[in-house]
Amino acid sequence: MSRRIRRTPYTNRVESFGVSGFSVVNHMLFPKSFGNSIESDYWHLHENVQIWDVSCQRQVEIRGRDAARLAQWMTPRDLRKAQVGQCLYLPLIDDTAGIVNDPVLLKLAEDRFWFSIADSDVLLWAKGLALGASLNVTVFEPDVSPLAVQGPKAEEVMACVFGEQIRNLGFFKFGHFSLFDTTQIVARSGYSKMDGFEIYLNDSDLGEELWDLIFQAGKSYQIRPGCPNLIDRVEAGLLSYGNELTKDNNPLECRLKQYCDLSGDIDYLGKRALQAIAQRGVERKMRGVVFGGEPCAACTKPWPVYVDNCQVGQITTGIYSPRLKKNIGLSMINSDFWDYGQAVDVHVSNTVRSGEVARLPFAH
Ligand code: THG
Fold first, then answer.
1. Which pLDDT band holds residue 219 (cuts at 50, 70, 90)?
2. Residue 349 reports pLDDT greater than 90
3. What are phi and psi of 202, to 5 degrees?
4. How buried is 195 (Cβ within 10 angstroms: 0-12 exposed, 13-18 middle, 19+ buried)?
5. Among 290, 285, 302, 291, residue whose Cα is nearest residue 337
6. Which one-letter DSSP state was computed for residue 333?
7. Ligand 1 mean position to 351 CA, how many Å?
8. What is the largest CA-CA distance in the chain?
C-alpha cells in the first residue's frame, strides 16, 4: 500500500473488521468489500443497517466575502434560494459545459460552503478559479471525514447515538449534534436510495471512537460494515463520476437538467456553452437498459449496446438485479435509439444479450 494513498480516520477499524478490497477515490482509501457478495450486501442494506467509510467524499471548503459568488460561479444550479442547513446535489462544469464533478453542496453559512466531492481534484479547480478572478475567499480541505449509516434501521441507530432529535432531520438537511463534547454536522443523505445519514466527523482523532459507538448501538439491528452497493446504485440511477460522468459529458445529457438554470439570470462558468447545447439539443442521453441471459457480474469495462449491426451506445455500469430478476445497466444512448422500449443487443464478454431501453430509475 503506497503511502501516497491516504488512510482515513476509520481505516484501522475497517481493517480489523476484515476489509477485503479497496478502491482509491480523491487519493484516499475507499473500502469496496468485506468479503460478502454484492447481492448479500444488497439484501442486508435493504433490511438492516450498514456503516460505510466514505471519508473519500472530501470536503472542499470555501469561506470569505466572495464565497457565495465563487460557489455560484462553479455550478449551473441556482443557489439563490439555498438555505443554511440544506444539502444540494449539483454538477460542476467547465467552460465547455463538461462535467468537472458532481458534489453535494452544504451551505454552512451565507459565507461558508462545503463541496462534498466525487472523484476529481476540485480543490485545485476551485483555487484556480478563485485566484484567476481575484476573489476574496479561502479554499481548503478541512479535517472532515464522512461516515455513512445507511439502511432502514439507520434512524434507530442514529437516535441511540445522537438523541431523538435526529429523527426530525429531513431528507437532504443537516444539523449540528453533540458527540464526545464536540459538535458534529449530521445530514440525512447518502449514496443509496435507502434511508440514511452522513456524519461529517471534524476531528480525525475521534474516528475509531465514533466507529465503535455506532457499531455498539447497531448490534441489536444486525449492523455490518459495508460500502455503497452497486446493485442499489444502479437500480436507483445514481451516477458515479469517472463511470457515468466525465469531462466529456454535459449535464443535459446526464439527467441533470433539473440542476441547471438556463434562464440566464445567474452567472456561472460554462453558461453560454450550456445554453448553446440546450438550444441545439443533446445528441445522446443517459438511459436504463434491461437485458436477459445469465446474471452478469459487475461490469469492469463498458458494454457496447447495438441496434442491428451498429453501436448506438454503451453501458457504463451494469449488474444483475436480484429483485427485478434482470440484468440492468446505466447507459448513454444516441438520439435515434433512446426511446423507451427500443430493442437493443448488449455485448457482454463474448455473449450477445437481447434487451431494451428503459426508464431511470429502475426501482424506487
Ligand atoms: N454523499 C456526500 N457526498 C458525495 C456523495 C454522497 N459526493 C460524491 C457523490 N456522493 C455525489 N453523488 C450523489 C448523487 C446523488 C445523490 C447524492 C450524491 C442523491 N441524490 C438525490 C436523488 O437523486 O434522489 C437527491 C438530490 C437532491 O435533491 O438534491 O442522493 O453520497 N456527502
1. very high
2. no
3. -105, 25
4. middle
5. 285
6. E
7. 34
8. 64
Please state the rounded mean pLDDT for residues 346-364.
Answer: 94
Cβ atoms 340, 346 nearer than 8 A: no
Of the residues 58, 60, 89, which should be mutated to test ligand 1's pocket, given the most ligand atoms within 8 Å of the CB?
Answer: 89
Instruction: Give, using CA atoms, the residue closest to atom 11 of ligand 1.
Output: 103
Which of 28, 61, 78, 104 maximizes ligand 1 atoms within 8 Å of its Cβ, making it the mutation to test the pocket?
Answer: 104
Cis peptide before 361 (omega within 30 of 0): yes
Q: Is 120 in the pocket of ligand 1 (CB under 6 A)?
A: no
145/252 Cα distance (integer angstroms): 31
Ligand 1 contact, 103 CB (< 6 A): yes
pLDDT at 1 over 80: no
| CA–CA separation, 212 and 166 (whole Å) | 19
**pLDDT tens digit sequence for 224-251:** 999 999 999 999 999 999 999 999 999 9
Both ends of the chain: CA-CA distance in Å? Answer: 38
298 has a pLDDT exceeding 90: no
**How far is the C-alpha of 104 from the C-alpha of 125, rounded, in Å?**
16
Measured by CA distance, the residue closest to atom 23 of ligand 1 is 238
With a 6 A CB cut-off, is 331 part of the ligand 1 pocket?
Answer: no
In the Cβ-directed half-sphere of 338, how many Cα atoms lie within 13 Å? 19
* Distance between CA atoms of residues 178 and 183, nearest Å: 4
